[in-house]
Design brief:
This protein has a single domain, classed as Maltoporin, Chain A (Beta Barrel), CATH 2.40.170. It contains 7 helices and 36 strands. The strands form 5 sheets. The protein has a 23-stranded antiparallel sheet that branches. Strands 1-6-7-4-5 form a 5-stranded mixed sheet. It is globular.
């Protein structure tokens, strides 16, 4: 907490200069449409496919799980690597990256990077769903200019609620459902003069669909603010605690007559394995209007994630991992909204500094001394600027660039005397620094109020994370062990996108086509058991969304996406990259049956066939396509609200993630998902 105290002291010292008027109560509050203290999408990036998911969209979602909600958006596919429990360990894939999707989709919370320096990726279940105000989605490479490396498939920014301008209110609700699912939520917000606050909390207990898929999770977020005429001070906090069982896969092998999907679908290959996680994050920031149209934002953050996991064999532990990941950051920026020769211009420029410390103990179990201790530190410093200019009343042009330094120090301490330590090798230390750049240029032209076209070209990059570097070599290879060398090249990509938007009466349409060419894409190779840089790859597709309001009570929505990802060169040239469905889509209806007393929502989701993980050779059968239907009916009566949801109405028995054998055709492990389930909720609004 020493870093947090230093950040707090620095920000409070700055506030003495930035906010001299804060000692007097302000009568005017600044309420921007998009709060730039938590989001940079308001900087005016055009020429790229974007969308916004509102709090109302989230409340009416039948599944009430963030990954499922995001899968309704064009270009997004889901991999249920776990047992489908509250979105825990679900992978959100934007524009087709398969197994490496967690590292190629940049997730932000209130405009700050939350992709950790490991392979787990962002845990969507860690954010209380009742804390979310809206979610901003920017597809493709353009987000790398504003947010840095990892924004290859796109950026997902989760913006939580604040209490600015709100009358005091509170909301509490509870729910129960299938598999002993019990859930409690509470939130409150309000303001008094220049002060405001918003708090949210959630607790979840469920046995899960499968043996050893129990989830115990709780989390909370808070937003405290002081808002005055010329600026504000804000403090965000988030904590979460998760205990999750890891049931493993279900084996199918026709060559020996095994089909656990048919005989024991809900069983566990690993009935004792588990993974626990504790997280906390803090952000303190100050904003100040330096002049009309010029706003300075200075903030800093501290994020900590502790993880413990144990894997068992024949009832005894054989692999224990204890990892601590700490990230500190400072991200000052200047936003300018002005005119140049009578033409409106928006400029956002700033500097990002992130320091990440990764310390991981690998041992026989969590009680034994480690045989490997990995100590990896990374510093990134990025300078960026992005501007949007209205060159005509009907035409906007945007351009931006980022220049970023990445410095890495990696060490391995190896103890051959520790249990299970014999026959291994100490990793080779690595010290490396490099400069990378991101750039984007986009344009949008509006032919009429009803029709517009847009397009962009962009370059982005992705720096390998700690787990990928540790897995760079097979360490245990007795009697000649190969030491981990931590060395991987930085992944780079170039993208071109074009599309159109139309607004015709009650109908809204958007469609875009994109093409991404990557070099050194980082990938896990099952043939060698290592992480490698691939030969050049290509990702391309078409994303189309539509919304139609039939009348004041009924609205329809839908999306259809075509996604391809292939190896461009090398031994797998022309083959599909695994875990990516070529076709996906959904269609939904919202019907206000009776003046919000009774509201009905339903969505049907189609996910096409995809290759198994490990099947870069494209020789195994495909993971089958599946279609699921979710329904919800709910309503509000004065301060009371209720809902009853049925997921997977037609009891489709499906899986969308599996690992194929390299040696036996038709042999694979699948991760089956629940059939029909229900969830009932009841709650109160207090004002």
């Amino acid at each position: 907490m020493g870093v947090a105290r230093r950040l707090s002291g620095a920000a409070l010292a700055l506030s003495a200069w930035l906010l001299p008027e804060m000692h007097a109560q302000s009568t005017t509050l600044i309420l921007p449409a998009i709060d730039v203290s938590v989001s940079r999408l308001g900087a005016g990036v055009v020429g790229t496919s974007t969308s916004v998911v509102t709090a109302e969209d989230i409340r009416r979602l039948p599944t009430q799980q963030l990954p499922q909600l995001l899968s309704e958006q064009a270009g997004i596919q889901i991999q249920h690597i776990g047992a489908g429990v509250n979105g825990a360990r679900d992978v959100v894939d934007l524009r087709g990256f398969g197994a490496s999707a967690p590292s190629n989709v940049l997730v932000l919370v209130n405009g700050r990077r939350f992709n950790d320096f490991d392979l787990q990726g962002f845990d969507f279940s860690s954010v209380p769903i009742n804390s979310i105000d809206h979610i901003e989605i920017m597809r493709g490479n353009s987000g790398a200019v504003l947010y840095g490396d990892g924004a290859v498939g796109g950026v997902i920014n989760i913006v939580t609620r604040n209490g600015v301008g709100a009358t005091p209110n509170a909301r509490v609700e509870g729910g129960f459902g299938s598999f002993q699912d019990k859930e409690a939520r509470a939130s409150a917000s309000g303001s008094s003069g220049p002060f405001s606050a918003a708090l949210s909390a959630i607790a979840l207990r469920t046995d899960g669909y499968r043996v050893n898929s129990t989830l115990r999770q709780q989390g909370a977020t808070g937003d405290l603010r002081y808002t005055a005429d010329q600026g504000s001070v804000y403090f965000n906090v988030g904590v979460d605690d998760q205990k999750l069982g890891l049931p493993g896969g279900r084996l199918v092998d026709p060559s020996v007559g095994i089909n656990q999907l048919a005989t024991d679908r809900r069983g566990a290959a690993t009935p004792n394995d588990y993974a626990n996680k504790q997280g906390q994050s803090y952000t303190l920031g100050v904003t100040r209007m330096l002049a009309p149209g010029a706003e300075l934002i200075i903030d800093g953050g501290l994020r900590r994630k502790d993880q413990q996991a144990e894997l068992f064999f024949m009832g005894s532990p054989y692999n224990g991992v204890d990892t601590k990941l700490t990230t500190t950051s400072v991200t000052p920026r200047l936003k300018i909204d002005s005119d140049v020769f009578g033409m409106p211009v928006k400029i956002l420029t700033g500097f990002d500094y992130y320091h990440t410390a990764y310390l991981s103990h690998r041992a026989k179990d969590l009680m034994s001394p480690p045989y490997h201790t990995y100590d990896i530190k990374q510093d990134t410093e990025g300078f960026y600027a992005n501007g949007t200019l209205a060159v005509r009343l009907d035409t906007d042009v945007t351009a931006g660039g980022r220049y970023q330094r990445n410095a890495l120090s990696a060490r391995d301490t190896y103890d051959p005397t520790a249990p299970f330590g014999f026959g291994d090798a100490q990793g080779m230390q690595l010290d490396r620094a490099e400069w990378q750049y991101a750039a984007q240029f986009g344009v949008e032209h509006r032919f009429t109020d009803m029709f517009a076209v847009f397009g962009h070209v962009a370059r982005s990059f992705r720096v390998p994370n700690a787990d990928e570097r540790i897995g760079q070599a097979v360490a245990f290879n007795f009697p000649a062990p190969t030491p981990t060398n931590f060395g991987l090249h930085t992944q780079t990509s170039r993208e071109i996108e074009g599309g159109a938007r139309a607004h015709i009466g009650a109908l809204d349409l958007q469609s875009s086509v994109y093409d991404i060419r990557l070099n050194n894409e980082i990938f896990y190779s099952p043939a060698t058991g290592t992480n490698i840089n691939l030969d050049p790859t290509r990702h391309w597709g078409v994303e189309t969304t539509a919304k139609l309001r039939l009348n004041d009570a009924v609205s329809l929505r839908g999306e259809v996406t075509y996604t391809r990802a292939v190896f461009r060169e090398g031994m797998f040239a022309g083959h599909d990259i695994p875990l990516i469905s070529r076709w996906s889509g959904n269609a939904g209806v919202s019907w206000n049956i009776w003046d919000k007393y009774v509201v009905y929502d339903a969505i049907v989701r189609y996910t096409g066939k995809r290759r198994f993980d490990n099947d870069s050779a494209n020789v195994q059968p495909l993971i089958p396509a599946h279609t699921v239907v979710h329904m919800r009916i709910g309503g509000e009566v004065k301060n009371l609200f209720w809902s009853f949801a049925v997921q997977n109405v037609f009891n489709e028995l499906f899986y969308d993630y599996g690992i194929a054998s390299l040696a036996t055709i038709g042999r694979f492990n699948a991760y089956p998902q629940p059939g029909r389930t229900f969830m009932a909720r009841l709650g109160f609004n207090l004002q």
